[in-house]
UniProtKB/TrEMBL annotation, chain A:
This is ABC-2 type transport system permease protein. Keywords: Membrane, Transmembrane, Transmembrane helix. It comes from Kribbella italica. InterPro entries: ABC-2_transporter-like. The lineage of its organism: Bacteria, Bacillati, Actinomycetota, Actinomycetes, Propionibacteriales. It comes from the Bacteria. The chain crosses the membrane at residues 27-48, 118-137, 143-171, 201-220, 226-250.
TrEMBL record, chain B:
It comes from the Bacteria. Keywords: Membrane, Transmembrane, Transmembrane helix. The chain crosses the membrane at residues 21-47, 53-71, 108-132, 138-161, 168-188, 224-242. It comes from Kribbella italica. This is ABC-2 type transport system permease protein. PANTHER family: SLR1174 PROTEIN (PTHR36832:SF1), SLR1174 PROTEIN-RELATED (PTHR36832).
């Protein structure tokens, strides 16, 4: 509860800071719209040439793109401002020392302490694209299951970010977050388009299949117990792994500032 | 002219040596640049699994992308923001010498790192190139690289007027991806979009060299003329913007 209050206070402060620069706000909103139009144009261009992309129809792909945009937006809002460049800022420049002196869990401060509310604009646009792609209103159970898989995907995204950041405790010069961001782009397309070795990596090693494809399939085809259970269990396991690795890393950390 | 070339060559040498210490960062830049063409290759290979043009085009595009990447919104605009361009203004050489030097040094490193990636993708997708098309693509690639630099440098000069230069560069990147041939080869775009793409400069930066490598050499001469026309327009605009921007530029401190 304390963390929720802390998050709400931090988020409100970030909103105030964002609204103070209105021209920048308008600029970024415009850019988000352009980015979304470009994503939709991609789908439009592909489906001008084919009726099905790896078994996905045009409408289904719009739902996939929308779901991916919602997740990307949540990642950009709550995860990226904290974990981007963590090895450099957190470990090598000693920002972690400051977190350790504050009366809140270090993992929370380092991975979720800051937010960029402006990135949520992308979520609104993503929801619009999902509504555009849906040919009929999904059943309430499908919507609930979609939200559950979305939450699980976000948890896995956070856990992956933390795990990559944890590597900096052992190898401070290793900056793998950019690779993760690049690999993240692959999650915006049906996983079936990728050939076998890469598809296996995207499913099991970097579970980008879970990121957008599983929530989209759940919304379109309805909930499947096995998928839901494995998604939630996968999120729980990755979350626990991230917490354990963080604690192990912290034990090794010796500080960078005096 | 020869003094200018010598200055650029010296700057490239210095920048190549400086950047050699940050090979990990350069690798991340290369991977980032390669993701767009790789996604395009997977998407269009799923649509046209039997067409060898798709894989050849995208392997060539991957290489063209890493060889022509430009980051003037970082190497130039940041100097405007933190005021360090004042030092460059006091030196007896044009400011653009350092910008070009940094650009070419980064491109050299990215090319070195991008070639194995392109080879890997080429082997995985069974791509075969002909020497004729590769040689024919060299002048188009050179002009494409100049064109892309001019475009990004133009956008970067927006830093004289706004703090949002990274957003403007992002917008330019979106346009380049959409109409330059990354999202889809120009030939695959729907009619009106294809006609717009043929006129705008973005195709000349990425898609045209890749198309020539993929064997579509029929538009080589007209392509060179189209690239040269856009370079002239961008270079003229850059000179005008530089003069207007530098009059506006102020800095505080010693």
């Amino acid at each position: 509860m304390k963390l929720l209050r802390l998050s709400a206070a931090g988020f409100a402060r970030s909103v105030q800071a964002t609204l103070a620069f209105r021209v920048n706000l308008l600029f970024d909103v415009g850019l988000s719209i352009i980015g979304m139009v470009a994503s939709l144009a991609t789908v439009f261009i592909v489906y001008a040439r084919t009726d099905s992309l790896a078994g996905w129809t045009e409408a289904e792909t719009y739902v996939l793109i929308g779901t991916f945009q919602v997740l990307s937006s949540l990642k950009s809002t709550f995860i990226d401002p904290n974990l981007a460049w963590f090895p450099d800022n957190g470990i090598r420049r000693g920002m972690l020392d400051t977190f350790m002196l504050q009366p809140a869990p270090t993992l929370y401060l380092a991975s979720l302490g800051k937010s960029t509310p402006l990135s949520l604009v992308q979520s609104v646009l993503g929801l619009g694209v999902i509504a555009f792609g849906l040919t009929e209103l999904p059943a309430p159970a499908a919507i609930v299951a979609w939200l559950v898989t979305l939450a699980a995907a976000l948890t896995v995204t956070w856990a992956m970010g933390v795990l990559l950041a944890c590597l900096a405790f052992w190898a401070p010069r290793l900056q793998l977050e950019v690779f993760y961001s690049s690999a993240w782009q692959l999650g915006g397309y049906p996983t079936d388009i990728y050939r076998r070795p890469l598809r296996l990596v995207l499913t099991y090693l970097l579970p980008l299949t879970l990121i957008a494809t599983v929530p989209t399939s759940t919304l379109l085809d309805g909930p499947r117990v096995l998928v839901l259970v494995s998604t939630v269990v996968g999120a729980g396991v990755s979350c626990s792994l991230a917490v354990v690795c963080w604690r192990l890393g912290l034990r090794r950390y010796t500080g960078a500032t005096s | 002219m020869s003094r200018l070339l010598l200055l650029i060559a010296l700057r490239i040498r210095r920048e190549v040596l400086e950047w050699s210490g940050t090979w990990w960062f350069l690798l991340t830049l290369t991977i980032q640049a390669a993701v767009g063409p790789l996604i395009g290759m997977f998407v269009w290979s799923a649509v046209y699994p039997a067409d060898p043009y798709v894989a050849t085009y995208y392997v060539a595009l991957l290489l063209v992308t890493v060889m022509t990447e430009s980051f003037e919104q970082h190497t130039f605009s940041e100097k405007l923001y933190d005021g360090t361009i004042s030092h460059d203004l006091l030196r007896p050489q044009p400011v653009v010498v350092d910008v070009i030097g940094a650009n070419l040094a980064i491109r050299i490193w990215m090319t070195v790192m991008g070639i194995p990636l392109a080879l890997l993708a080429g082997v995985a997708f069974g791509v075969s190139l002909t020497w004729v098309s590769v040689v024919a693509a060299v002048p188009v690639l050179v002009l494409g690289a100049v064109l892309r630099f001019c475009f990004v440098f133009l956008l970067s000069m927006a830093a004289f007027w706004t703090e949002r230069v990274h957003a403007i560069a992002g917008f330019g990147w979106t346009l380049t991806s959409l109409l330059g041939g990354t999202i889809a080869p120009l030939a695959f775009l729907p009619g009106p979009l294809r006609e717009i793409g043929q006129v705008l400069p973005f195709y000349g930066m990425l898609g045209l060299p890749a198309d020539i490598v993929a064997g579509r050499t029929e538009g080589l001469l007209s392509g060179l003329a189209y690239q040269a026309a856009w370079i002239t327009a961008f270079a003229g605009l850059a000179v005008w913007l530089w003069r207007a921007g530098i009059r506006r530029y102020t800095v505080v401190g010693a």
